[in-house]
Amino acid sequence: QVQLVESGGGLVQAGVSLRLSCAVSGRTFSSYTMGWFRQAPGKEREFVASFSWRVGNTAYGDSVKGRFTISRDNAKNTVNLQMNSLKPEDTAVYYCAARSGSYTDRRANEYDYWGQGTQVTVSS
């Protein structure tokens, strides 16, 4: 079992940066591929970013590429999402997810574990 707890969300103005963290506990941290997804009201869950520890590659959704960065902090057992140049369309609940596969994946249904989500609201 893996437990995921997100933090760092909030209300910010467009153009600023925000950093989300996902605390990971349970099985070996490096055994999982980690991902971030988001869901805005009335919309489907959208892929944001993914990082594979085993392979060492990352993947980003087209709408965040170049602005968001996924990383891990081994000392704190966290997966972080650095979000720069935020836009109002980035407003959503952001979810941390984990999957047992070795490769990054953009499909939400491929992830086995989910956090409770953290709200990010970007005002114009």
Folded structure, characterized:
0% of the residues lie in helices and 52% in strands. It is built from no helices and 11 strands. The strands form 2 sheets. Strands 2, 4, 5, 6, 9, 10 and 11 form a 7-stranded mixed beta sheet that branches. Strands 1-3-8-7 form a 4-stranded antiparallel beta sheet, with no helix packed on it. The mean pLDDT is 93.
Question: How would the blueprint of this fold be written?
Answer:
Elements: E1 2-7, E2 10-13, E3 18-26, E4 33-39, E5 46-52, E6 58-60, E7 68-73, E8 78-83, E9 92-99, E10 113-114, E11 118-123
Parallel strand pairs: 2-11
Antiparallel strand pairs: 1-3, 3-8, 4-5, 4-9, 5-6, 7-8, 9-10, 9-11
String of helices and strands: EEEEEEEEEEE
Q: What's the helical proportion of residues?
A: under 10%
Q: Poorly predicted ranges (pLDDT <50, ≥5 residues)? A: none
Percent strand equals over 45%
Mean pLDDT: 93
Number of helices: 0
How many whole angstroms does the radius of gyration measure? 13 Å
User: Main sheet, how many strands, which sense, barrel?
Assistant: 7 strands, mixed
Straight-line N-to-C gap: 40 Å
Total number of beta strands: 11
Structural class: mainly beta
Shape: globular
